[in-house]
# Entry
Amino acid sequence: MPKAVVLLSGGMDSAVALAEAKAAGFEAYALSFDYGQRHRAELRAAARVASSLQAAKHVVIALDLRVFGGSALTADIAVPKDRIGDGAGNAEIPVTYVPARNTIFLSVALGYAETLGAHDIFIGVNAIDYSGYPDCRPEFIEAFERMANLGTKRGVESHDIRVRTPLAALSKRDIVRRGIALGVDFGLTLTCYDPVLTGDRAAPCGHCDACILRMQGFREAGVADPALA
Amino acid sequence: MPKAVVLLSGGMDSAVALAEAKAAGFEAYALSFDYGQRHRAELRAAARVASSLQAAKHVVIALDLRVFGGSALTADIAVPKDRIGDGAGNAEIPVTYVPARNTIFLSVALGYAETLGAHDIFIGVNAIDYSGYPDCRPEFIEAFERMANLGTKRGVESHDIRVRTPLAALSKRDIVRRGIALGVDFGLTLTCYDPVLTGDRAAPCGHCDACILRMQGFREAGVADPALA
# Structure
């Protein structure tokens, strides 16, 4: 089986991306980051998802982006609530944007892939129902892929490094449906930027962008969110 | 003064890159990585160089690439000695290549730059007298810059992120000369991949690619290397 690196946050989208990698016949190596995010509870969710979907391995890399700050997800800035109208994305880049986050995550995934002898990287970015982050857009992914094939031994020798974005053109509704079809247990995932922690349990806030988009997706899919059960 | 992020390894090239950033009128924020490199002593050299050249700040990011392995610089693989003929580069990519290293370093620098409100990143890559790493070549740097302008808030809004490579077209001889002209104290730098450690002192091995290229540069410049004094 060919190997692939899958960026796994612990949220719903990356869980479906991991399931897609498996469905496409890859041995999946899940990669998560402990980057100082306030919603660090997502790392426990990532471990549950990696186990449930039988990733070959789950690696968590520590990379403290709090040294820089500049984002509501890593610094002492409030996560905006009820910011986006239900049913619509938003063209403005919000304060939850983490500078260059997907570039950094994809770069480390690229190094991991090269070490594994893999040339496929999966990332659950989505440019339909999303927060407006520039590093989720197809033109960014294409530019990253081109750069990756120029900046690595593997890329220079084989020109075959691919960044796969199976969710890029799906609505949140379709991501929910696709996940269910692939056997993803959404009850294991945590999508929220600002979860309410009670002991080991992390409950979604219900009001951040990520929560609103997730609720919208489940509602439109006509399915109850098992994480809210 | 505009701000710039300068990747600073502690070796001779990045020291000159930092001096170039200062000479170009930037307030320089030096960025180093503790990535599990066997030549970790270079981080002490980086701190000395940052202080000597009056960087506004020197940040060291911990990012343990040993988790992946795959390189003589981060795993239990011997650093090749006397590999390249004196006076010549080498087209083959050696085992000291660290998968996607410059991509990872530039990505983190990009996040730091965006947080600082900077749009210039300096890196001391050189594609004349070098080890044959793909991520030192101008075509890689250009592709990275293009990607950076698509994947960041700053890039999308202003299209002005620049990766500056003042050493790209210089020979090692000219890097030595340029550094001396800019007041770089090469005695503070450590270029070697496999230094001999005696207490706090790290002496260059004299036989790895980095040592050979450095010796060649000083000899051709007609200057004694103060690090060997």
Summary: The helical segments of chain B are 12-23, 42-52, 101-116, 138-151, 153-158, 172-181, 209-221. The mean pLDDT of chain B is 91.
